[in-house]
Amino acid sequence: MEALSAEPAAAAQAPDNTPDEYAPVAGRSLAEVEQVRQLESIAAQKAARDYQHIIWAYGILWALFAAYGIFLWRRSARLRADMSDLRRELGGREGR
Amino acid sequence: MRRFLPDVMLLAAAAIFPYSVARIFLDTPIERTMGTAFKIFFFHVPMGWLCMLMALVCGIAAGIELRRRSTTASAVALAAAEIGFVCGLGVLLTGPIWGNATWGKPWTGDARQMSTALLWLILAAYLLIRHYGPENSRRLAAALAIFGAVDVPIIYYAVKLWKTTHPTTEVVGSLPPALWASLWPGLGALVLCTLGLMGIRIRQLLIAEELDDAWVRLADRRG
C-alpha cells in the first residue's frame, strides 16, 4: 500500500526532460558547437598521446636510481682500495 | 644468506620492473580526463610513500643514535636519508611534469607540495651535515632528522587540513582493482630496489667505520 502511494510522489518530483529526450542547444550556433567538438577532440587526442611527459617522468626516475647505483658502486670501489691499502700496510708491518 | 639479501632484492626488483612497466603501458586503460599522463601516478605515488617511509626510518634511527650512540643506527639513518633524498627528488621532479600535463601548471604551491619540498630540504641539510660537518655535528644532524620525521604526518594530512590541488588521501584507496593490479608490481619493485640499495649502503657505512677504526689503531701502534 505504501509503495502504491509513493509512486505518484516520485513521478511528481521527476524533471520534465529526461536525458533521452531531445533538447535543442540554446545560445550557440551550429558552427560554434562544431568548433567546440573539434577542440574537445584535439584535446582528447593530445591527452591520449601525451608521450612527452611520460618519457620525461620515467626517464628522470630511472636516471635517479641509476645515478645512486653508480654512487654506491664508486663507494664500493673506494672501500675495496682502502681495504687493500690497509692489508698492504699490515703485511709490510708484519714483514718488517 | 643475509649478506646476499640486498643483491637478491635488487635482482628481484630488476625482474619485476619490466613486468610492471609492461602492465602500466599495455594493460592499464588510459584515464578519461588526464589521459596518458596519468601513468606517471604508478611511480610518482609509490616514490612519495617511500620518501616518507625513509624519512620516518631516518628520524627513528637518528633518535636511537642520539640515545644509545649506536653505529648501526647511525648507518641506518644515513642510508635512509640518502634513499629518501633520491625518492624525494623523484617525487619533486615527476610531480611538476604530471601537474603541467593535467593542471596546466607545474607548481601550484599547495600544502602537500610545500611540505614535501620542506622534507626534501631537511634531508638535504641532514646529508650535508653528515658528509661535511665535523665529528661532533652528528647530534645536530640527528635532531634535524627527527624534524624530518615530524614533517611526514604533515605531508600526509596536508590534503585534509588545507585546500590543495592534490586529491584527498581516500582517492588511492578508492582505485578500481584493475589500477591496483598495475600499482602493486611497481610499488613492489620500488620497495625491493630501495631496500636492496639501502642494505648495500648500510653495509658500506659499517665497513667504512671499521676501516677507519683499523687505520686509527694502526697509527696508534706506530705512534
Structural class of chain B: mainly alpha
The tally of domains of chain A stands at 1
Residue windows where pLDDT falls under 50 for at least 5 positions of chain A: 1-14
The main pleated sheet of chain A reads as:
none
Helical fraction of chain A: over 70%
Coarse structural class of chain A: mainly alpha
- CA radius of gyration of chain A is 36 Å
SSE sequence of chain B, one letter per element:
HHHHHHH
Descriptive terms for the model:
heterodimer, A: 96 residues, mainly alpha, 79% helix, 0% strand, rod-shaped, disordered N terminus, B: 223 residues, 7 helices
Description:
The complex is a heterodimer of chains A (96) and B (223). Chain A has 96 residues and is an all-alpha fold. Chain A has one domain. Helices cover 79% and strands 0% of the residues of chain A. Chain A has 3 helices and no strands. Chain A is rod-shaped, with a radius of gyration of 36 Å. Mean pLDDT of chain A is 77; it is low at 1-14. With 223 residues, chain B is mainly alpha-helical. The interface between A and B is medium-sized, with 29 and 34 residues.
Write the layout of secondary structure elements.
The complex is a heterodimer of chains A (96) and B (223).
Chain A: H1 2-13, H2 30-48, H3 51-95
Chain B: H1 5-27, H2 41-68, H3 71-102, H4 111-132, H5 138-161, H6 170-173, H7 177-222
Short description:
Chain A is mainly alpha-helical. Chain A contains three helices and no strands.
